[in-house]
Amino acid sequence: MARELFSNELRDEFNDREQFTTADVRNFYHRYVPGIKDSTVNWKIYHLTKEGVITRLRIGVYQLKSL
Q1: pTM
Q2: Measured distance CA(60)–CA(67) in Å, rounded
Q3: How much of the chain is in helix, strand and coil states, percent to nearest 5?
Q4: Which segments of the chain does DSSP mark as H helices, in order?
Q5: Helices (H) and strands (E) in the chain — how many of each?
Q6: 2 found inside a domain
Q7: CB contact burial 50-66 (16+ within 10 A = b; e otherwise)
Q8: What angle do CA 46, 40, 3 make, to 5 degrees?
């Protein structure tokens, strides 16, 4: 479970937002993995981007990728 990206839950969380920040993603993951390290959140963001779940708009700002 530690390597889970929670992609579906993330889509549900940010579906109604045009963009969201690294801090928003960090807060999201803290609900599922209390005490998660910032470096782990950054790793998850990297993999979410690589898998096409989110798109980076600029440093620290992301958008859900359309299905």
Answers
A1: 0.90
A2: 22
A3: 50, 15, 35
A4: 7-14, 22-32, 38-50
A5: 3, 3
A6: no
A7: eeebbeeeeeeebebee
A8: 85
If DSSP codes are grouped into helix, strand and coil, which group holds residue 62? Answer: strand
In a domain, 1, yes or no: no
How confident is the model over 8-34, as pLDDT tens digits? 999 999 999 999 999 999 999 999 999
**Nearest 10 degrees: CA dihedral of 56, 59, 62, 65?**
0
Strands lying side by side in the sheet with 54-58? 20-21, 61-64, 54-58
CA–CA distance, 43 with 64 (Å, rounded to integer)? 17
Q: How many domains does the chain fold into? A: 1
Helices 7-14 and 22-32: crossing angle, nearest 10°?
130
Q: Give the domain extent around 43.
A: 7-64
